[in-house]
């Protein structure tokens, strides 16, 4: 397995592969890898086959964090990540630094961003106004550096995956976007690098996110159609029974357009975000 931190070296290798007709599968991550990330690596390998190459990027992208967020505290363990990638059969780990990814930014000379203007306005985009601009910018840059044929994203970040699909279509990136299912802990909590912050009783309280999804599924199965406003109010109450839990949002929407629905039915998409102590967790499900 090769470890590359220079954007020019990564792009050069990708161009060599391209010329030789080698398929490239790509999994962008912020590191502190868990089984969910590794399932994306397996999905990428499945797509490109043994003769293809799988690239994982590990980069905690500063432009997708607001100044008040956890950029400096974001968990990192590159040594462990590299071991996991090696064991998973990754060909290249791309680990650029900030100066490589955003040349000139430290002196105010970086000035190009990619913005998706519709799907990114609601939910995560409403709660974290600069977040998706950072995500689309870094993913567009990574696509230009790694030149993937296929790139795999997690359903865990449902809105992010929808925005990446839209950006890829709108900007004509020749990349097939795959969205892979969410891997969960035994008690339903979606795997996330941020779960490391959940110490002591906070870890138990975090399972209320999964409970809320189950309650919404049950409500839809039982009544066929439920008023979104009523279900939102019930889920807020349920979540906030936990002493350190605070609901940020829960939304019910059309999974294609992300347009809110007034009536929740089978096939409606649900997404929610909550704080447990200081940790912000997100999850989603198709009802
Ligand atoms: P991150 O390192 O959190 O930026 O995530 C990198 C990629 O892994 C994104 O496409 C995420 O959606 C995906 N991912 C994160 N958690 C999970 C999970 N529990 N199951 C599957 N994919 C995940």
Describe the structure.
- The protein is an alpha/beta fold and 287 residues long.
- It has 2 domains: 2-180, 3-Layer(aba) Sandwich (Rossmann fold); 193-286, Pantoate-beta-alanine ligase, C-terminal domain (Pantoate--beta-alanine Ligase, Chain: A,domain 2).
- It has 10 helices and 11 strands.
- It has helices spanning 7-19, 35-48, 78-87, 98-101, 124-127, 131-146, 158-170, 201-205, 208-223, 228-239, and strands spanning 2-4, 24-29, 53-58, 92-94, 150-154, 176-180, 225-227, 245-253, 263-265, 269-276, 279-286.
- Bound molecules: adenosine monophosphate.
CATH class term of the largest domain? Alpha Beta
What overall geometry do the principal axes of the alpha carbons give?
globular
CATH architecture of the largest domain: 3-Layer(aba) Sandwich
Distinct ligands: adenosine monophosphate
Q: Any idea how many domains?
A: 2
Number of β-strand runs: 11
Helix-strand sequence: EHEHEHEHHHEHEHHEHEEEE
Q: What's the alpha carbon Rg, rounded to whole Å?
A: 19 Å
Q: Can you tell me the residue ranges where pLDDT is under 50 for at least 5 consecutive residues?
A: none
Keyword list:
6-stranded parallel sheet; 2 domains; Pantoate--beta-alanine Ligase, Chain: A,domain 2; 3-stranded antiparallel sheet; alpha/beta; 11 strands; binds adenosine monophosphate; single chain; 287 residues
Topology record:
Layout (H helix, E strand, L loop, with lengths): L1 E3 L2 H13 L4 E6 L5 H14 L4 E6 L19 H10 L4 E3 L3 H4 L22 H4 L3 H16 L3 E5 L3 H13 L5 E5 L20 H5 L2 H16 L1 E3 H12 L5 E9 L9 E3 L3 E8 L2 E8 L1
Parallel strand pairs: 1-4, 2-3, 2-5, 3-4, 5-6
Antiparallel strand pairs: 7-9, 8-10, 10-11
Helix pairs in contact: 6-7, 9-10
The protein binds adenosine monophosphate.
Adenosine monophosphate binds next to helix 2 and strand 5.
């Amino acid at each position: 397995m090769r470890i590359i931190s220079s954007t020019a070296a990564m792009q050069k290798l990708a161009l060599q592969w391209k010329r030789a007709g080698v398929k490239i599968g790509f999994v962008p991550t912020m590191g502190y890898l868990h089984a969910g990330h590794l399932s994306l690596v397996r999905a990428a390998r499945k797509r490109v086959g043994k003769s293809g190459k799988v690239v994982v990027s590990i980069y905690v992208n500063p432009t997708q964090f607001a100044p008040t967020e956890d950029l400096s505290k974001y968990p990192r363990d590159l040594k462990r990540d590299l071991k996991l990638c090696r064991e998973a059969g990754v060909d290249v780990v791309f680990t650029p630094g900030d100066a490589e990814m955003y040349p000139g930014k430290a002196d105010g000379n970086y000035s190009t961003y990619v913005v998706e203007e519709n799907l990114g306005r609601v939910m995560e985009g409403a709660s974290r106004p600069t977040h998706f601009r950072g995500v689309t910018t870094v993913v567009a840059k990574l696509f230009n550096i790694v030149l993937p044929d296929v790139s795999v994203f997690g359903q865990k970040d449902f809105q992010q995956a929808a925005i990446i699909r839209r950006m890829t279509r709108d900007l004509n990136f020749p990349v097939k976007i795959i969205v892979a299912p969410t891997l969960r802990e035994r008690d339903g909590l979606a795997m996330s690098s941020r779960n490391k912050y959940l110490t002591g009783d906070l870890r138990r309280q975090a399972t209320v996110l999964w409970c809320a999804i189950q309650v919404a599924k049950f409500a839809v199965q039982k009544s066929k159609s439920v008023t979104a406003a009523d279900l939102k109010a019930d889920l807020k109450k349920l979540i906030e029974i936990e002493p350190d839990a605070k609901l940020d949002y829960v939304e019910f929407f059309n999974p294609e357009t992300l347009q809110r629905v007034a009536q929740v039915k089978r096939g409606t998409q649900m997404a929610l975000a909550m704080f447990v102590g200081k940790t912000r967790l997100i999850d989603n499900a198709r009802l």
